[in-house]
Amino acid sequence: MTSPLQQKLKVTGPVVVTANRLGDGAVVYRSADGSWTKDLAAAAVVTTTPAAVDLLTAALADKLKAVDAYVAPVELTPQRVLPGNLRERIRFNGPTVALPGER
Amino acid sequence: MYIYDDFDRTLVDERVREFRDQVARRLSGELTEEEFKPLRLMNGVYLQLHAYMLRIAIPYGTLSSDQMRMLAHVARRYDRNYGHFTTRQNIQFNWIKLEELPDAMADLARAGLHGMQTSGNCVRNITTDQWAGVAPDEIEDPRIWAELLRQHLTLHPEFSFLPRKFKIALTASAHDRAAVKIHDIGLHMHRNGVGETGFEVMVGGGLGRTPFLGKTIKPFLPKRDLLSYVEAIMRTYNQYGRRDNIYKARIKILVHELGAEKFTREVEEEWQSIKDGALALDPTVVADIAARFRYPEYEALEDNPPELAQARADNRFRVWLDNSVANHKLAGYAIVTLSLKPAGGPPGDATAQQMDAIADLAERYSFGEIRVGHEQNLALPHVAQRDLPALWRSLEEIGVATPNVNLISDIIACPGLDYCSLANARSIPVAEEISRRFKDLDLARNLGRLHINISGCINACGHHHIGHIGILGVEKNGEEYYQVTIGGRADENAELGKILGPAVPYGEIADVVEDVAAAYLELRDRPGELFIDTVARVGVDPFKERVYAAR
Amino acid sequence: MRLVKAGRIIEDRFVRVLDDAPVPEGVAAVLPATRLLADARDLVLRQAPTGVIWPNDRKIAELAPYLDWIALVALVFPTFRDGRAYSQARLLRERYQFRGELRATGQVLRDQLLFLHRAGFDAFEVTKDSDAATFAEAVHRYSVFYQPTGDGRGSTLTARRARGPSPVIQNPREYAA
In B, which residues are within 8 Å of C150 by CB distance? Predict the structure, then answer.
């Protein structure tokens, strides 16, 4: 998947802003109250380009907590928010292969 | 292997202290990410999909048992109990926390390990043949020269902000096991007409978006001139390498755009001014470095001792012996390759437990020394032949005795989209599936030496261009597709692979590899004709016809 | 931005002359490269120090004819990641024996100060005030240097020669250089 950090912003479905936490590199999502959460269900979901730009701008300004923020697609089901493509699924769930020693 | 003196140790300690300060300033916000990123890269710290990744240098692929134990400690204490050995003889840990990195680096420093310059726009880990010092066909140990270069190019004030990364490799055998032709500088030690040993200097090799094989700019460089000549090349690159476009910033582009002749003239002109200066290597400097290389106290042994002769009766042992054990330059000794390619498993990984066990076995059977190969396997370079049966049983117990070295299931793969933020597609599950399909050792042996290289993106960290079968992951409409090349090779007859046909989706790539293997069996003119030679003989089209007939 | 020289924050005595502006009399002045090359014959007669800002994509050899009377060469780091001026600095000091002020300008940050110092710079337009204040710490971070440059610091090449052979390692190989 082409790195989203190189993509131009064009929102055609539900998206979140995601980044990596500065201290430990963990995958985090921007929530509505301006904090970062590992829980995708608590992420702010927006559906228009202007809203995404606002969310991303606020996230990028918050340089102390998270690094390399970008806009990522999500899939909305009646029950939950799911990562919207393979790259985001891997970021959220971890590698698709068992880690050594865990087979 | 090289033993640090006080200067070496002090430098690494000072680097740890500096990095600790830099991390603190980043965490406090005093350094922005833009200011910090090149600094952390120069310590081997990447930010990947899930976490930070730490790449630790294993200079020219030589590791001591104590160092391997320290890597196991880092895996356990700071990571998730495993590490990944790379195509450039480094090790990577994938789950590192930035906050804990200074402590991890302090621990590593105690064993003389570090991540200096394993990333960033500087000179990276200098690699060589994993059989250096023990290969029968070698004219001398290239690691002495690798160490001289390593030191010269570590924290070099002029060359720490190059246009792009810089990779150097050396070999001292006619058969190049270090892939020197695909490096920014490749150095091939050889003897000239009057018996002197020197370096053939090749510049501008590299893979990625625009693969090139290195061009010889100096057929014979005397040893005395190694540092000054490399300095001249680096200075030319630092000044004239492109800085406007990261895809055109490697030295291979500069050599290509200037032409080899003009490039060589620039280097030679610069070199004339410095060749007799402070960088001219006098014998005392070389002897000083060489004096800190520790070599085993070998015994005088005979080939094929009784322990070995008797053990050959065991079929499974013999299969492993024939596959994983290579001739040593000394009678009575052997070089043992440890396969990190278990059937259905991720290529090139070792658990902390395995690392500790390998450290112990190295101490017991290999004078405490281990090697890391760019094919992502390990080697024990100094094993007495009489110890092979006992060693084999121990290696089997820890799962590193799969007799698939150099066979189709000995796959070289980058971490791919499961870990890497640059990737377009996954590579590890592709490798795992292929190795599952070929786990029948009779089938694998029948196919013979066959290198599969898998890269998850065009950056080619899996070296797919030089795979006998090369697989490149690409993205099409949000789906993972794979482009196959065949006919690449990495040795002294290096060649880039040719595209076989249209890219295929994730679900089909293992089938395609099976079809390529089947086509080879059909096309080879005798069982002994290697895959790579069949491709050279018949070309790509017969393979393409068979593989794509039904697609 | 603070100018640091000899480990101290100082006032810049050089006036920056832009493009075609007249060069002030009796005052240290630093000019763009094109200006220096065009007006060298007049500039050499000035009664005050003259300096030049030399871009990082021009050969130092072009500046060579003027180095015996130029008081200041300012080299440029458009970003700290663009390392061309390190080579220019070393050439100026080590090839052309330039003894005037060699100044780093552009994006000049704490973590490059030691590299800059080693390459021959002796004056630094340090981008952040906080970095200027820690100059001394920054250039003393390391005591070991593997490679000799023109800065006068000893390298391991000379230090090891002076120390003599290492303690004998178990079974050293006879090595013919």
Answer: none
